Amino acid sequence: MNASILLLPGDGIGPEVVAGAERVLRAVAARFGHEFDISSALIGGAALSQGQAPLPDSTLEAARRAGAILLGAVGDPSYDTAPPSERPEAALLAIRRELALYANLRPARVWPGLESAGPLKPEVLAGTDMLIVRELTGGLYYGEPRGYADDGSSAHNTMRYSRLEVERVARRAFEAARLRRRRVTSVDKANVLETSRLWRQVVTAVGASYPDVTLEHMLVDTCAMKLAYAPSSFDVVLTENMFGDILSDEAGAVVGSLGLLPSASLGDAAGLFEPVHGSAPDIAGKDIANPIGAVASAAMLLRHALGLELEAVAVEEAIEGALTSGARTADLAGGAGQSLGTRAMAEAIADRVTAAAV
User: Which of 20, 118, 283, 334 is the most buried (most CB within 10 A)?
Assistant: First the structure.
């Protein structure tokens, strides 16, 4: 296969973890005989520091041409007091909107050897393997009107959803469940919010078209609690934008580290793939960030954007092999034993991708 892949390293630890994922992608290309045309562009604080917009027009054009996009992270505390449109995070909202990436898939599983890495007892965590499907272009993050009162005494946001927005992401969740354990938990706040009542109505109607998939509805506060005491009870979790943002981070803590979690943002064209973690400026440039989230995002890129299932499995097996052998970054080592740096962990995974071909 010949495929174009656009890298958006971004800010903080983004360039480090994307470099690790690129190394693994090149190992995949070499092993399976593909040609990946890999290029890079600026986004977020990296673009702002060059006097450009958070999402430069040239970056957006490159993203529209690419077969797939791998993003590192956006966020730079030096822009925390800037207007919302001039902050790095504005780029993330803009690229999702411009590329119509309405469904965010965030898997969270317990990797072999990491059963004790999280805060939960291993017997509670055992068997945890969930997929959070988050609606990505609606809700509070995009709703209008929004802003501050003229006198600065108050601020307002609008939470808004249409039937179409709920329906299309719900279908993504039910289709994903058919490839897993055929259970969907739809999360809302229908006891309080009108948008959640519409959400529940539409998801129920969509679910009727999938009689082979079990659907349950759950309030978001109940879901947050159950993630902490029975995470293995979930298969596919379907929810709106803000709830999904929060719950997927909780899932990362449950399974051991946000550094482990990948994601895929999908629409009807090229997908955007990124680790769930943020830019982590406090550890940027120290070669201690965990690249597994970015590498696993590259596996999702291979599967969902390029249709390369065998190659995606090869990357996931290489991650599992590295962890099973005892390879750990600092966030996973927990002070026990020597940890690997970002580059060394990525190399350990890439070497296993290559070695499997021998």
Answer: 20
Query: Which domain range does residue 244 map to?
Result: 118-255
Instruction: Give me the number of domains the chain comprises.
Output: 2
- What is the C-alpha R_g of the chain? 20
What residues pair up with 214 in beta bridges, in sequence order? 183
Please compute the mean of the pLDDT values over residues 268-291 and round it to a whole number: 93
Instruction: Provide mean pLDDT across the span 173-192.
Output: 97
What residues are annotated to the active site?
141, 189, 221, 245, 249
Q: Are residues 237 and 285 part of one domain? A: no
Per-residue pLDDT of 280-301, as tens digits, reads 999 999 999 999 999 999 999 9
Residue with tokens 């006891």: 191
Are 131 and 79 in a shared domain?
Answer: no
Q: Return the closest-CA partner of residue 244 out of 135, 94, 140.
A: 135
The answer to whether residues 281 and 175 belong to one domain is no
Q: Are residues 82 and 9 in the same domain?
A: yes
Predicted TM-score of the model (pTM) = 0.90
CA–CA distance, 280 with 59 (Å, rounded to integer)? 23
What CATH number does residue 24 fall under? 3.40.718.10
Mean pLDDT within 205-227: 98
